Amino acid sequence: MRAYGRRHRRWSRRNPQPLLFVPHESLLRLAMTAIGRALFRFRSEAAPICAGLALMATGLLLHHSHRTSWPLVALITAGATIATGLRRIPWGIERWTERAYAATSIAVGGGWLTAATALGSGHSPLPTVLVLAIIALGVPWWAHRRRRARVRVDRVIHAWPDLADTIGLNGSRVMSAVVDTWGWRARMKLRPGQSVADVVARVPAIESALGTRPGAVRVEQDPAHAGRCTMRVIAVDPHAGAIPWPGPTARTLADPIELGVFEDATSVRVPLLRRHALIGGTTDSGKSGVLNVVLGNLVACTDVVLWGIDLKGGMELQPWAPCLARLATTPDEAARLLADAVAVLEARADASSRGNSRVWETTPDAPALVIVIDEYAELVDTAPDAVGHAESVARRGRALAVDLLAATQRPTQKAMGGGALRSQMSVRVCLRVRERRDVDLILDKGMLTAGWHAHTLDAPGKFYVLADGHNQPRRARAYLVTDDHVRDTAARYADRRPELDPLSQAAIDRPSRALEPPKAPTADPESALLSALDEAPDGGLAIPELIKATGMRRTWIYDRLQAHAAAGRARQVARGRWKA
Ligand SMILES: Nc1ncnc2c1ncn2[C@@H]1O[C@H](COP(=O)(O)OP(=O)(O)OP(=O)(O)O)[C@@H](O)[C@H]1O
């Protein structure tokens, strides 16, 4: 029947008929038909008036035939009012305002009917009371946002077969639709042979046909059925405003990191243990914002040592310096840091193979090492020697808990130093991109066609994420971490950061010893230490460098640094880096 209707409509469109005048059709009948159609179309808007008319007619009828039964009408009214107000019968209305409205309407309508049964609908002042009640109860009804949305959705569902024909999705059906806080969503059944990719490809056409703003329609695959999907129409952007960061939720690297929230208000939780992550997006898209959310959580984890590379002079990562065991701000420092990461990797690989274990189990005593790199392309340009080390970490680091977290504007082959690194990144966060094809660069080939439309993201911090458990193109917005948040969080966790395990630390110290054996203690190690601190660069000197300068042991250096810090002669500029 439905198929016949569709065929008929299509045929009528292709073969428009001349306007016919039917002389024998009575004018009254035509008018009644038009009124009936209008009443049906606007049935929701007309409901209060129709209810009033129905009450009037019922009152007339009851007064005429059962005028003594008004106590029964009153009893039923009281029962229905209580059931609706207190027990949510018969509609199961959850919101208390809607329940109160329903109970009031029943009480007023039933009360009026009781009076009309006893006295007659026309008895003064009952008609006036009825008109006033229709207006008083009608206003909230007409103004109700969810009711109006429901009506709009019903009309769309009704018109969908025609719309679908127009936009090239003929044969698709809307099975059900629900109005929610942000708009509405519909479950769709596709014609055999159609796929969700066909719907995704027609999203702009759907938006035009539904008359929504651009970017308002989302399409999600039904995980249980290839021929079904959910279409969401977002009337009010749930991500219009910034979402404040609630603070760290992870306590160990095994806990997923909460990056922000999806449009349905569920949180975006991404596992980072034994995974490398890539954050991509154009300038001002919020890459540093996402890095800050991740760092805000990682500094609260007791089983992660953090190293940072920020070749923008430390602009982005410097505020986290109290929690970073190392921060490289020059190409040389970055190259050394990554070479040390490879040394850690090799030492751990060696220890694991001797201990016959395949993976490095992270604990506070044997923490993971996470290297955060802000603007990876800068590293490739200015420290090409470091790229080999970074790739080595990317290839071998996961099992040994040495992870990379890199942000970049555009991860082209060149910017990613050949692309070997990118292929190892299993967590991809894609913020706004300038060119559509950048989506495939950041996420993976074919993702743009699959519906990951990052070029339509319209505010900083909005992103798509591709990771374990996130393989659907769902928009999210990252929490906004303010400068105050960063300062407070860094200060709060600075003293609780774990040290690298002795095995990894020894691997870092070893090469410098091998190349340049420690000098014999200088005549005055104390003044050697102070002059080294005086001459230290802005990023400070690391402990191995101070060992080299003084020829003294690590414990002696720590003791003296504490004493000088207490006397105000030395300060820690980053985790493990000191300066006068
Ligand atoms: N999640 C967010 N919610 C709201 N505003 C944000 C969010 N993330 C970033 N912003 C704002 O967007 C602006 C740019 O953010 P950010 O510096 O993180 O971008 P970026 O991509 O790192 O830029 P660049 O490429 O220049 O380093 C900032 O003013 C910041 O306050």
From TrEMBL:
Keyword Thylakoid: no
Pfam families to which the protein is assigned, alphabetical: FtsK_SpoIIIE
Chain intervals for the UniProt region annotation (Disordered): 494-527
Annotated TM spans: 46-64, 70-89, 101-120, 126-143
Keyword Phosphoprotein among record annotations: no
One GO term (biological process): cell division
Ranges of residues in domain FtsK: 254-440
Record's keyword terms, sorted: ATP-binding, Cell cycle, Cell division, Membrane, Nucleotide-binding, Transmembrane, Transmembrane helix
Residues bound to ATP: 281-288
Domain of life: Bacteria
InterPro entries in the cross-refs: FtsK/SpoIIIE/SftA, FtsK_dom, P-loop_NTPase
Protein name as it appears in the record: Cell division protein FtsK
Species: Paractinoplanes bogorensis
Source lineage: Bacteria, Bacillati, Actinomycetota, Actinomycetes, Micromonosporales
